[in-house]
Amino acid sequence: MTSSDLPTGLASASSLDELVRVVALLRAPGGCPWDAEQTHESLVQYLTEETHELIEAIESGSRDELLEELGDVLYQVIFHADLAAHTPGEGFDIQDVAAQMTAKMVGRHPHVFGDVNLETADDVALAWDDFKAAEKPSRTSVLDGIPQGMPALALADKVLGRAQKIGLLGSEAAFPLPIESEDQLGPLLLAIVSAAKSQGLDSERALRTALRGLQDEIREAETTDARGIDVADAGIIGLPG
Predict the structure, then answer these.
(1) Which is an annotated Pfam family here (predicted)?
(2) Quick one: which of 89, 117, 119, 197 has the most CB atoms within 10 Å?
């Protein structure tokens, strides 16, 4: 579609405005029947697929593939926002999504928009969880907010990172193998999965089960710390090795 193909009034809009309006037209009466029938839930499979395609383009694709896949993910966001704008009880649109995100990013960057002094990327990373905690005071655990539906390997990285940040997981918990690069790590992980498959074991389920146990330990350690007991004295969390 070119600007000359758009309905009257769209050609002078920005490219982003054009896309927002095209989605609205597709979902409006007289538009596309398939688009009109979709729900947030029915679109989840497409969001998952498009996200994985974007990751693949980032890791091994070309400039044109990256451009295309970013557009596909953007389309999903705009589609969900248009759905919300026409769903009773939701009532927000893409402008509301953008406004909320702008406010969030300004609030999480007081070193840019305020008077907090954070000079390095490491300084920002250390303070980031504090900024997020200030937004959501109802959260009581470092694990709150981690999506449990993440792939097990990504979930493990997130859980371990949160535990390390607050000192609940010591460096001595690292697996005792001389791994110095992802080129070394990849074949090792592949070998573990291969060995598991040869024994009829499910690597994803096994790791997710282990993570549930680790998260229970982390929450127990947080409770111990909240009672005024030094976590270091109570025994810091470790991993089997």
Answers:
(1) MazG
(2) 197
Name the residue among 221, 202, 204 with its Cα closest to residue 154: 204
Residue 33, both tokens? 């029947």
| CB-facing half-sphere around the CA of 145: CA atoms within 13 A | 12
Among residues 141, 178, 184, 192, which one has the least CA distance to residue 163? 141
- Domain 14-92: CATH superfamily is MazG-like (1.10.287.1080)
Average pLDDT of the residues in 147-165: 88
Helix (H) or strand (E) holding 220: helix 203-226
Query: Hey, where are the domains in the chain?
Result: 14-92, 96-137, 147-234
* Phi-psi map region of 144: left, alpha, beta (phi>0 left; psi -120 to 50 alpha): beta
**Residue 241, pLDDT above cutoff 70:** no
The pLDDT value given to residue 227: 54
Whether 172 and 232 have beta carbons less than 8 Å apart is answered as: no
With beta carbons less than 8 A apart as the criterion, state whether 52 and 68 touch.
no
